[in-house]
Design brief:
This protein has 439 residues and is an alpha+beta fold. It has 9 helices and 16 strands. It is elongated, with a radius of gyration of 38 Å. The protein starts with 5 loop residues before the first helix and ends with a helix.
Length: 439
């Protein structure tokens, strides 16, 4: 019932992602064109030191590996590649600076092609397409926009290939392939998403810790009231994308799987699949069990106490209406008996006494209900229900209109009955003998 709408979940995986670049083999080679590295610091006479290109690849087991190739004009540097016999996904291309070189530089590196082979000295090199220039983006786009990181981009060469252009003030410059977005799409629990158009604008990105604990960022595409177990103030991302964006293998990790509904057959199949994949299931809990924890918590008992207090208050109000009628029926009886002797019909007198009681009850109940609803809306969000983080989602502070209407109707019926009884007691005191006694 509380699951996110499927169209909202679909936005967590962009549909316009470029095809992943798969490198299969035991070695890689770059075909480089023109390579230029010039100083961008007019105040320094130092010459920039050589740069290199570092390729980051993700193995089938989700671990990362890298190879570094020197960047020289019209060269074909190659390097051995481990763990990619079954295919690795190229995730990043990094312009690596020489250690200790912090000179501001402008670099231009022409990439005519990327090739994979069975060995560094083999002759069976196979071309690997790097895709279009727009398929790559600065991995530190937000920091670069603020001047805290290198700027780097790809531009296409008319004859084929790409040109890497970078401005670096000592740091490496990294381009990320957008089969994994730089800012992962995310849903915010209990938060505001701004435009929520999923455009991936770095200025609207939210800083976070990735699934591996490293610093990362995400692009809000929508919001949810809360998430299971973590409540509000959390982020929901696609698990596959989060793993692909991680910088390390997720060993010794635990994960929770939340099913939309209670389905023992589906749960059994899921457990079998996880066990077959070598992922043991260490625990199980249901929404009913979590709800029982909340039902036994101090806030839940406080709510029950408040309900009992409200019920007692309604009974006391009904009793007070009757007591006031009993204590005031003799003087009220004099007035009503006089009206009766003046010719006021008994039916009209009964209606007037009953309306007097019921209109007062109606005004009091409706005013009390309105004050209670407004007061709850203003006060409850500021009340700390738990000293420690709650093990279950916090209750919604929205107005539960069915409960409000039911409670209002119940109190209204109770007090109307008390008012009718009070009217009957007053009318019993109306007789000509009351006037004689009053004289």
């Amino acid at each position: 019932r509380d699951a996110a709408p499927q169209p909202l979940l679909d936005q967590l995986v962009p549909t316009d992602r470029p095809t992943p670049i798969v490198v299969t083999g035991r070695a890689v080679r770059l075909r480089l064109g023109d390579v230029r590295v010039v100083s961008d610091d007019p105040s320094s006479a130092d010459a920039p030191k050589p740069v290199a290109l570092r390729l980051w690849l993700r193995r089938p087991d989700s671990s990362l590996t890298s190879v570094q190739l020197p960047a020289q004009t019209s060269s074909t540097p190659s390097a051995a590649l481990g763990g990619c016999e079954q295919g690795c996904t190229l995730s990043r291309i990094e312009l690596a600076r020489t250690v200790g070189d912090f000179l501001a530089i402008r670099a231009t590196v022409g990439l005519l092609g990327l090739e994979a082979g069975s060995a560094a000295g083999s002759a069976d090199w196979r071309p690997v397409a790097l895709g279009d220039a727009q398929d790559w983006r600065n991995a530190e786009a937000a920091a670069a926009a603020a001047g805290a990181a290198a700027t780097v981009s790809f531009t296409a060469i008319p004859a084929g290939g790409l040109v890497l252009r970078a401005v670096s003030h000592g740091s490496d410059a990294t381009l990320q392939h957008l089969d994994v977005p730089v800012n992962l799409p995310c849903l915010i629990a209990g938060g505001d998403t701004g435009s929520g158009d999923g455009s991936g604008d770095a200025d609207a990105a939210v800083a976070m810790h990735g699934i591996d604990g490293e610093s990362a960022s995400c692009q809000p595409v929508g919001s949810l009231p809360f998430l299971p177990r973590v409540g509000a103030g959390a982020l929901l991302l696609d698990l596959d994308l989060a793993i692909e964006a991680s910088q390390s293998v997720l060993t010794n990790s635990t994960a929770s799987i939340w099913l939309r509904s209670s389905d023992p057959a589906r749960e059994h199949r899921l457990t079998q699949v996880l066990t077959a994949a070598g992922i043991p299931v260490t625990g199980r809990s249901t929404a009913a069990e979590r709800q029982s924890l909340y039902d036994q918590s101090t806030p839940a008992w406080s709510i029950r106490a408040a309900l009992a207090t409200g019920l007692i208050a309604a009974l006391l109000a009904a009793l007070l209406i009757v007591i006031v009628a009993v204590t005031a029926r003799r003087p009220r009886g004099y007035d009503l008996a006089a009206l009766r002797l003046l010719g006021l019909p008994l039916v009209t007198l009964r209606r007037a006494v009953l309306a007097e009681q019921l209109l007062g009850v109606l005004a009091g109940v409706l005013t009390g209900a309105a004050v209670g609803v407004v007061g709850a809306r203003l006060a409850l969000p500021a009340v700390a229900l738990f000293v420690n983080p709650a093990p279950v989602p916090l209750p919604s502070f929205g107005t539960a209109w069915p409960a409000v209407l039911l409670a209002t109707a119940g109190v209204l019926v109770l007090l109307c009955c008390a008012g009718a009884l009070a009217a009957a007691l007053v009318l019993r005191a109306v007789s000509p003998g009351v006037l004689r006694e009053g004289q």
